[in-house]
Amino acid sequence: MSSTIESNAILNRLPKHLKQFIKPQNYEDYSAIDQAVWRYVMRKNVTFLNTVAHKSYIEGLKQTGISIDSIPNMYGMNRILKDIGWAAVAVDGFIPPNAFMEFQAYNVLVIASDIRQLEHMEYTPAPDIIHEAAGHAPIIANPEYAEYLRRFGEIGCKAISSAKDYELYEAVRHLSIIKEAPNSSKEAITNAESKVEVLQENMGAPSEMALIRNLHWWTVEYGLIGTLDNPKIYGAGLLSSIGESSWCMTSAVKKLPYDIKATYKDFDITKPQPQLYVTPDFAHLSLVLEEFANTMALRKGGLSGVNKLINSNTLGSVELSTGIQISGVFTNVIEDQGNPIYIQTTGATALAYREKELVGHGTKSHSKGFGSPIGKLKGINIAIEDMSPRDLRAYAIYEGEVTTLEFEGGIKVSGEIVTGKRNLKGKIILVSFKNCTVTYKNSVLFKPEWGIYDMAVGKDIVSAFSRPADLNSFNLITHVPSSKTIHVKKSEEQLQLETLYQQVRDYREGTNRTISRTKVLEQLIEKHPNDWLLPVELYELAFKGHETELCKNILFHLENIKQDRPEVGHLIDDGLAIIKQNAVIS
């Protein structure tokens, strides 16, 4: 397991460019302290969430094979998740938003396999296995929600980003990493937080990706469901945060009805949320998602869609009314009366139809870019794509003809027609010329010496979206994270403490009953006086065994810790309350 990734039918469907983000979970790297953190959070959450979470959460914990006592082996989880049509993979922290959403489109949960430090038990800005496995996985057992998540990924992965989006992603990723790194200085964290704040305040007009990420945040991560007066939790960020899951149910957090306006409500990942949105049911989530999708370039196309791609400065695609798709980095558009009349890419470009690359029109054929007119011919009511073979012959759009095509808006294409390509409906989608010149007013857009000119045919741009139409047209195996999760070498003191945690875990699980828990407590008091979680675990064993004297000694030690570290007092009290509550229930 440490060096290999178990696959299955769902994971086998993933394209290669997504597999580059997957890493082994390395289950043996989890320490006994990590296991204790998982166990505490899960016991506290399940105890509390029984009353405030959507009913699908508790049911989903059982269905997805998530244990309260042990960190889940996600590739073991897959054997259970496959029954509901999903799978899980491990990644290193945050991955790019488009990739994250595309995983969802393939019914795959992306799980950051690291776990938060004991010091950040209540909340961490870094994605971790508590958030991902215990937060996201149980709710997908609900079929309506699972379909929403899949559909969200399908639409979201085609949302167009801005250059600033990626800069913000990198800044947030860096902040999440150093906040979880044990040796990060306060100054480094403050600087990272300041950078995120500055970027957030200077993003300019929000991109499609920024807007759809808002929807994702206020639903998948921080969503409430039910009525404004009696909401239940379903968002993974709340389900996995033992601090916010209780605070969000108070009157201090404003509850708003969930609708399309949530698209424009930004969030701050470093702070608790001052307001949350309540959806009446899971089906309503899909209605709002479709409402937003109708505003995207994916469905609207047009001049605004091309301009979004140009502003993104990254690989994207447009689809014309004939179905031909042009994929590349768009750098220019000529417009006339609010309509695009010529589009231009720079660098490697590929042409496709229905997400399949056209033979002979990959990036090798169009390595230096691609340009094409859009629209109808001047003075002719019928568009080229709607012309019958007889019409094409009449207008000299025919093999071997030397012709000049003048488009509405002023683009002129002059040359000898070599051949053409048609779509499945018989419409002409591409015309190739030799000895061709393309002009617009006094500008030359294509010269004969540049070779064959391929003109895409389409009267309108019907769609514009992020990523290539055919994923195989480009080398997408290029992801190199700017920063990786920091794993520092453990001190001798830390290793000794982990050994004590392991002894208590072994005792509880029955693998070693010879451990002296009194001796463990003595070593804790002497060498690790500030650790509070292991004494709580020791108390649980002593309480169950009716060991009055040991219970008394542990509680005395815990009181000393509460005086020295008042910030963990409520965690200690909650841990003790869970122990007593479970004893009453059993």
Notes on the protein architecture:
- This protein is an alpha+beta fold and 586 residues long.
- 42% of the residues lie in helices and 18% in strands.
- It is built from 22 helices and 17 strands.
- The protein has helices spanning 9-12, 16-19, 32-52, 55-63, 74-81, 97-105, 129-139, 143-156, 163-180, 186-201, 208-221, 236-239, 244-247, 282-293, 297-300, 302-312, 389-394, 492-509, 517-527, 533-544, 548-564, 569-585, and strands at 87-91, 108-112, 224-226, 231-233, 254-257, 275-279, 316-320, 324-336, 339-353, 356-357, 371-373, 402-406, 411-422, 428-440, 443-446, 453-456, 461-466.
- The strands form 4 sheets. Strands 7, 8, 9, 10, 11 and 17 form a 6-stranded antiparallel beta sheet that branches. Strands 12, 13, 14, 15 and 16 form a 5-stranded antiparallel beta sheet that branches. The chain has a 4-stranded mixed beta sheet with strand order 4-3-6-5.
- The longest helix has 21 residues, at 32-52.
- The chain starts with 8 loop residues before the first helix and ends with a helix.
- The mean pLDDT is 90.
The rounded Rg comes to 29 Å
User: Which word captures the global form?
Assistant: elongated
Helix content: 40-55%
Instruction: Enumerate the spans where pLDDT stays under 50 for 5 or more consecutive residues.
Output: none
Helix vs. strand class: alpha+beta
How large is the share of residues in beta strands?
15-25%
Tally of separate helices: 22
State the major sheet. 6 strands, antiparallel
Instruction: Give the strand tally.
Output: 17
Q: Terminal Cα separation, in Å?
A: 36 Å
The average pLDDT score comes to 90
